[in-house]
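User: quick one, sequence for these tokens?
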């Protein structure tokens, strides 16, 4: 065995294993990695064994990182997991034989290998590619030893009548198979090219090491030839046996997935989730087939083993118990049922011309018919339904119909952009997709999954071209007079709501019916929403809550994906039409409402004077902007609640509260005290800017803000690692805390002050520096409209830079003039490396209000280093 760069020679072993099945009577040499002897030399007793199985055309080299990392952690006092990573026969540095190795033969071979090794439990299987199938086959055959299963991109079932992925069809084609897999290195090199970025030469050479000649590549060709393309293939029966057996595995499970895999595509992940519904799933966005090379899978696996608590004492864990009914649970559609005979107005959509008005009885009938129609179409409890419909009565009816039958609504708005929206839809993998024509066109072009349902009735040719199966009108017609299935219960999943994507790829946030109901209740109680309140909802997430709250709602005339398109006159028209007393807007919408207030007539102002409650949600706003908004709504109590997609309401503060808080001279933006039922804590930052402190409510401590509430999300969808990072447990406590990613502090009165985002904290020579306080100080300077504090220089030695957007809109980006620089430096307490000016601060595409500080920081670094000055 020649040495292989990057592979610790201490782990390499060869044993002789008696053959089985077609190999009976022979002994075969198996090369493998085994960290057990190294652990023994360290005097460490393994808590269990990770049995890792590679795919085609890789070998045990694929698991080198987890071998090394598991030993490193054990040396540092962590759990000592033994890793055994095989080279399957015909592969890697194991023996080449004259026996064809079918899937059943390979599963039996692996069993013979573990018998020869005298492997005892607990064992956690780990597989990739076709090694995933084989490792799961071993797990099915060894239920007394298996304590957990982990798989990377693999498949245990291929639907009948569907062609296998194109790369495998090409590689397995007659006349191509031998040339691409054995006589040449084409298949091997193509596989190595499936990494997200080009693999380093030494890594590529490591994978090539055992396959230097055609004779040593025969196993690669055998593996491809053994792919069960349909029921006639000799290995199809074994694949079916394994697929059926996987459903019976109730041990903890983890699926790590690279979605940019041309072979193991999304449908195979969906099938695995269906067979192992209790599995924790993490999609590494952007990763491909070689997800173990693209992402830190070794750390992910070992972290998960720590969380799962799989050791010699606890080698079993029962599956999650099914959802149970909650006697106090009042579902979201209950107010609709109560007003089923009410002919008064329920919802108005003023984005249409003429405005669309829907009454309570009409809405109830529509929801009931759509619920029955969706059921007849085949939508079942737990099915995901992607909704690509503009906010308004149509979306409202569809949402409540889906909730009523227990389908899971998937909501990702157009503000994510085409790429972001596409990632969200693919990631959620809905079984059904309901959309308007533009969305259906995008779905067809970009290959979005799901049976397509059109909002509008389309011409037959158009519907066929877009792959549309039916329209909402068709569903309502087929469902008229029909009966919906049994209602879901509180613990059932109700919705997946995607975050804005302003801090990375948008994440799907999972809510149960009980959590949505808790959100409704806290909103109604805190803001005193009554049946006659009426809502103007210029903020999309709250546009759907009107029916749940039992009050009419109106969507004003605006582009709902671009909040800045909302004008003051449009708000006045919406208030007048719905006789509304409560107005919900985003900060970006408020900016334009204030800017266009001069267009209001006396009659418009009289209408707006009827508003009693005004809310700005989506991002905290300052007293000046809130005061300007109050001049538009002179008799309203202005509120600016703090929250996030994961917990839409956390704290609340009024304009008067902001003014009182100003006297405290605390750094940051005061967002008020926690709403009833919400608990807020802070995890203190260490010298490196990391939130490592215990959750506490100590006043004046800068740290990451963590929250707990009945309406806090359940988890992130198919992002198990992200979810684990976002959860904080309090020792000895029962609370489930969510790490918000925001930094700030609590004051002596229990009020929360937000000082920025955790990734935007500058680690300076003097310690962590949050950005918001400096920004507030800069924004008090005459001529400054908005400011952002960002860092330049290396970590630990970051220097603060202020980037300002001026009221007179600078013509070009670059260094601020000497006068403005001097005034900003004088106003900001922290030392500044520079003051820069831009025509407009870049913001996220969804809210148009959250400043993109990461982008500004990169730009400022270039400018301060003497680079070419262009707009960020």
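Assistant:
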């Amino acid at each position: 065995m020649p040495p292989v760069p990057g592979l610790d020679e201490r782990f390499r072993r060869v044993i002789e294993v008696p053959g089985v099945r077609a190999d009976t009577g022979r002994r075969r040499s198996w090369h493998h990695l085994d960290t057990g002897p190294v652990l023994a030399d360290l005097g460490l007793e393994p808590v269990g064994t990770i049995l890792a199985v590679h795919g085609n055309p890789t070998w045990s080299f694929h698991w080198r990182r987890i071998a090394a990392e598991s030993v490193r952690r054990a040396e540092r006092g962590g759990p000592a997991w033994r890793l055994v990573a095989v080279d399957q026969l015909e592969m890697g540095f194991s023996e080449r034989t004259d026996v064809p190795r079918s899937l059943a033969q390979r599963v039996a071979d692996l069993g013979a290998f573990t018998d020869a090794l005298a492997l005892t439990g607990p064992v956690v299987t780990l597989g990739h590619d076709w090694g995933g199938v084989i490792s799961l086959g071993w797990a099915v055959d060894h239920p007394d030893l298996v304590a957990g299963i982990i798989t990377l991109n693999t498949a245990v079932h291929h639907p009948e009548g569907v062609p296998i992925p194109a790369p495998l069809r090409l590689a397995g084609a007659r006349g191509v198979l031998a040339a691409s897999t054995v006589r040449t290195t084409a298949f091997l090199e193509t596989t190595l090219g499936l990494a997200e970025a080009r693999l380093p030469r030494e890594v590529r050479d490591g994978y090539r090491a055992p396959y230097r000649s055609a004779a040593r590549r025969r196993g690669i060709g055998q593996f491809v030839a053994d792919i069960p393309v349909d029921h006639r293939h000799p290995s199809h029966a074994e694949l079916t046996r394994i697929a059926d057996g996987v459903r019976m595995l109730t041990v903890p499970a983890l699926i790590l997935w690279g979605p940019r895999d041309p072979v193991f595509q999304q449908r195979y992940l969906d099938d695995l989730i269906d067979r192992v519904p209790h599995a924790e799933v993490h999609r590494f966005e952007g990763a491909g087939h070689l997800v173990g090379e693209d992402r830190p899978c070794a750390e992910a696996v070992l972290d998960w083993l720590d969380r799962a608590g799989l050791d010699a004492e606890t080698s079993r864990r029962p599956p999650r118990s099914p959802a149970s009914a909650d006697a106090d649970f009042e579902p979201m559609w209950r107010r609709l049922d109560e007003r089923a005979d009410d002919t008064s107005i329920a919802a108005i959509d003023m984005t249409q011309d003429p405005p669309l008005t829907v009454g309570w009885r009409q809405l109830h009938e529509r929801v009931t018919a759509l619920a029955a129609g969706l059921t007849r179409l085949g939508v079942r409890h737990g099915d995901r339904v992607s909704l690509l419909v503009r906010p308004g009565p149509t979306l409202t009816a569809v949402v409540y119909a889906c909730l009523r039958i227990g389908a899971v609504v998937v909501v990702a708005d157009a503000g994510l952009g085409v790429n972001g929206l596409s990632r969200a839809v693919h990631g959620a993998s809905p079984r059904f997709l309901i959309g308007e024509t533009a969305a259906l066109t995008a779905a067809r072009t970009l290959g979005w999954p799901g049976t397509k349902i059109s909002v509008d009735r389309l011409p037959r040719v158009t519907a066929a071209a877009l792959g549309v199966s039916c329209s909402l009108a068709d569903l309502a017609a087929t469902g008229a007079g029909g009966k919906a299935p049994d209602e879901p219960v509180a613990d059932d999943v109700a919705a997946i709501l995607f975050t804005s994507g302003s801090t990375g790829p948008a994440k799907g946030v999972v809510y149960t019916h009980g959590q949505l109901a808790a959100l409704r209740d806290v909103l109604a109680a805190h803001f005193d929403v009554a049946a006659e309140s009426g809502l103007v909802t210029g903020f999309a997430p709250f546009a759907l809550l009107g029916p749940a709250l039992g009050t009419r709602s109106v969507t004003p005339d605006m582009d709902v994906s671009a909040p800045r398109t909302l004008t003051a006159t449009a708000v006045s028209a919406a208030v007048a039409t719905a006789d509304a007393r409560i107005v919900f807007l985003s900060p970006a919408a408020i900016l334009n409402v204030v800017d266009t207030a001069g267009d209001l007539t006396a009659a418009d102002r009289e209408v707006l004077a009827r508003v009693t409650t005004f809310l700005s949600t989506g991002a905290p706003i300052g007293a000046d902007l809130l005061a300007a908004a109050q001049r538009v709504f002179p008799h309203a109590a202005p509120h600016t609640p703090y929250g996030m997609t994961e917990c839409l309401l956390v704290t609340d503060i009024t304009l008067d509260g902001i003014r009182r808080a100003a006297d405290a001279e605390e750094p940051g933006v005061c967002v008020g005290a926690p709403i009833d039922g919400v608990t807020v804590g802070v995890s203190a930052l260490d010298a490196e800017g990391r939130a490592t402190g215990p959750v506490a409510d100590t006043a004046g401590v800068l740290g990451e803000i963590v929250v707990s509430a009945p309406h806090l999300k359940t988890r992130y969808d198919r992002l198990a690692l992200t979810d684990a990072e976002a959860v904080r447990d309090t020792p000895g406590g029962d609370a489930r805390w969510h790490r918000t990613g925001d930094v700030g502090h609590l004051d002596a009165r229990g009020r929360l002050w937000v000082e920025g985002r955790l990734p935007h904290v500058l680690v300076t020579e003097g310690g962590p520096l949050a950005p918001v306080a400096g920004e507030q100080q800069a924004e008090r300077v005459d001529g400054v409209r908005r400011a952002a504090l960002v860092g330049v220089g290396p970590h630990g030695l970051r220097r603060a830079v202020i980037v300002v957007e001026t009221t007179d809109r600078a013509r070009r980006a670059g260094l601020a003039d000497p006068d403005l620089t001097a005034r900003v430096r004088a106003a900001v307490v922290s030392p500044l490396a520079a003051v820069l000016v831009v025509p407009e601060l870049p913001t996220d595409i969804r809210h148009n209000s959250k400043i993109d500080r990461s982008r500004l920081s990169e730009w400022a670094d270039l400018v301060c280093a003497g680079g070419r000055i262009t707009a960020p």
